[in-house]
Amino acid sequence: MNVRFFALFAGVFCITLAVITQGVLPFVEPSSRTTRVTSVVRTDFGQLKWTVSEATDYTEQQRRGRNIYLREGCWYCHSQFVRPVTGEIRRWGPVSEAGEYAYDVPHLLGTRRIGPDLTRVGLKYSDEWHLAHFYNPRMLVPDSIMAPYRGLFHEPDAAVRIVDDGAGNRTLERTEVTKGLFDFDSQQAIQLTPNANGLLFVPLKARERKPIILTPNDEYTGETVSIAAETESVAALVSYVQKLGTNRGKWRDLFEPQSLEVMDATMPRSEEWIAYGKEVYERRCIGCHGAKGDGNGPAATFMFNQRPRDFTSAVFKFRLTKEPLPTDGDMLRTITRGIRGTAMPPWYELPLNDRLAVIQYIKYELAVDRSDPASPYAFFVEEPPGPPLYIGRPPTPSQTLLDRGKEVWQVAKCWECHGQGGKGDGQKAAGLKDDLGFATVPADLTSGQFKSGPAVEDIFRTITTGLSGTPMPSYRDSFPDEDRWALSYFVVALSAYKDPLSLQPLSIKKEARAALNDLELVADKPERAYVPDPSVPASGPPAPPGEKQAPAGG
């Protein structure tokens, strides 16, 4: 026997062991074939509770995306498994459960983590963010080591001319290439904006629409553009990535690391902190918001639904002040939580000092009107934010409160933009624009992807202050607090018992729904999840004194 023999024996042993543990044992162990998972649902009264449910299989498009994920070797660097240790849970989310992998063959658990773990990546970012990221990761993360996947996009060799359409709009020249990407004779238009380098992203939905090149703020002044068009392949890959983790329901709405609540966190102006904030901005924010902070970064062309924030205009949507400018606390909350349903991700993983520093840079260097170079106007210096408004404790939800909220919905004419069902398809939805001239789409409130936050207090804040720079007005002076609370509960209830990804109603028994709607039911952790099936005993620690333990049946 020699070293070579031992090396050969060790290699054969390890391969055999891997086949047994990865290929044989999963089929022998019954728990590996379960579809049972714990997931978070929103009740009719706006509460978020854990319950036992069934994982769902991939759709045809998601399965195709998974095959592309395998083919492209994404799993070489990305793992898909959250281990039961504190660091894992606070970074990625709830511990993985066997039922999440019921439809995964082969499993893609992985341990290398050269790239981030993707177990819980679903709905953390918007589709548009993923599209930009697959096209060129370094547009969003300058220090990323991930390779671009531009081969998944359709990129015509020749540049395309921008021409006048004869009706006062700018469009693209009709060529054999563009006729394959658009329907120039359609009555529906799609507005697209090139980035400063002349790159124009074309989504799949453009196939049935005519193109309008929209540059209201001279985002691009060239005469030709280079096209990067979405394909069925990259759409499928994005669909698969968005599926990951969503079998656990609305868990992100209960994710403590990003659920920051702060009224104010004012710091005195500091040139050193501003300089450090610039470093943070260039490392984390420049790809979307641009070097000048004008919302026209290299990735901005991919954000055709919702443009990145233009800091130079000092218009901020999310605040708790009567005046337009937000406090440092407002900005810290937005950066930490992110803006759900958009390309703005949560940045809770950034050190607190990084987040505070970038706020200083945004306030004192980017939020400045430089139209007159001789006399720049610094908004946060000339118009400092006023004191934060006070939001009291929300009233106890009830059916009476929801009924009142529905009445306020009608009186406030929320349905004109959001639609009677809250899907964002009201009669005034088409043609809405923000203050910068870009099209804006009313939120689909049934998705539960509330931009300002998932709690009823967040909805109340939005209804109270409005969303600056958008058609969403303030109702602070139009309705008393009681009516705004009622409307807030009604809005939250529009997403009750909905799948967060498909937006379809969950399959849940009437008895289970009634039990989950019980305000005294405590199901705040996976270990204390409500169990609809009476044959399955409840597990986990007992509820605190005075609270009702999640029962073992509906």
Automatic annotation (TrEMBL):
<keyword id="KW-0479">Metal-binding</keyword>
<feature type="domain" description="Cytochrome c">
    <location>
        <begin position="272"/>
        <end position="366"/>
    </location>
</feature>
<dbReference type="InterPro" id="IPR003468">
    <property type="entry name" value="Cyt_c_oxidase_monohaem-su/FixO"/>
</dbReference>
<feature type="domain" description="Cytochrome c">
    <location>
        <begin position="60"/>
        <end position="245"/>
    </location>
</feature>
<dbReference type="InterPro" id="IPR036909">
    <property type="entry name" value="Cyt_c-like_dom_sf"/>
</dbReference>
<dbReference type="InterPro" id="IPR009056">
    <property type="entry name" value="Cyt_c-like_dom"/>
</dbReference>
<feature type="domain" description="Cytochrome c">
    <location>
        <begin position="400"/>
        <end position="495"/>
    </location>
</feature>
<dbReference type="Pfam" id="PF02433">
    <property type="entry name" value="FixO"/>
</dbReference>
<protein>
    <submittedName>
        <fullName>Cytochrome C oxidase</fullName>
    </submittedName>
</protein>
<keyword id="KW-0349">Heme</keyword>
<keyword id="KW-0408">Iron</keyword>
<feature type="region of interest" description="Disordered">
    <location>
        <begin position="526"/>
        <end position="554"/>
    </location>
</feature>
<dbReference type="Pfam" id="PF13442">
    <property type="entry name" value="Cytochrome_CBB3"/>
</dbReference>
